[in-house]
Design goal:
- The protein is α+β, with helices and mostly antiparallel strands.
- It has one domain (44-162): Immunoglobulin-like.
- The chain is built from two helices and twelve strands.
- The strands form three sheets. Strands 5, 6, 7, 10, 11 and 12 form a six-stranded antiparallel β-sheet that branches. A three-stranded antiparallel β-sheet has the order 1-4-8, with no helix packed on it.
- A hairpin with a 2-residue loop joins strand 5 and strand 6.
- The longest helix has 20 residues, at 20-39.
């Protein structure tokens, strides 16, 4: 008596044609190539501090103002960043541009040449008033390598600022 021939567990159509070690080698090579390529990719971003009443402008030039400080931060050293920034107010669904700067250039920080700090963006405010502010900026970063990287960003949400110095 003959026993029936067992059916194969893996159908013939899905059996690998290439040995598994070859497939693993190809995937590993692709991962290495992708990681080497990503290391050379330079990225820069704009980071916003929250808008705040500027005591320095009040002390120096007697102006009540709200400041918006911005930092450009890159994965490699930069020479400088050129930015245009806008400070707007939001009331209900109405957006009103309060100040749009011209192009302002800031050299890289001596302490950390991957960053450039912008402390010049401000708009006058009425003392005692509370306004919801939002900011955005765009421009380009010139890296030490000579490469130019475009940057832009906006604040995620508006923030209410009281136009009055804080008690110390």
């Amino acid at each position: 008596m003959s026993l029936p021939k067992p059916r194969p567990l893996i159908p013939i159509l899905i059996k690998p044609v290439v040995p598994a070690w070859v497939l693993i080698a190809v995937i590993a090579t692709q991962v290495v190539i992708m990681n080497v390529g990503n290391r050379n990719e330079t990225s820069c971003e704009l980071l916003f501090q929250r808008p705040h009443y500027s005591t320095s402008l009040q002390e120096k030039v007697k102006i009540d103002a709200v400041k918006l400080n911005i930092t450009s931060s890159c994965t490699e050293n930069q020479l400088h960043t050129d930015l245009v920034a806008t400070i707007s107010s939001i009331s209900g669904s109405e957006l009103k541009i309060l100040n749009k700067s011209g192009v302002i250039r800031q050299d890289a920080s001596r302490e950390d040449p991957t960053k450039a700090h912008f402390l010049e963006f401000w708009t006058p405010c009425k003392r005692g008033g509370v306004v919801n502010y939002i900011g955005n900026a765009y421009g380009e970063v010139t890296l030490r390598s000579g490469k130019v990287v475009p940057v832009s960003n906006s604040m995620d949400k508006s923030l209410a600022v009281l136009c009055r110095p804080r008690a110390k």
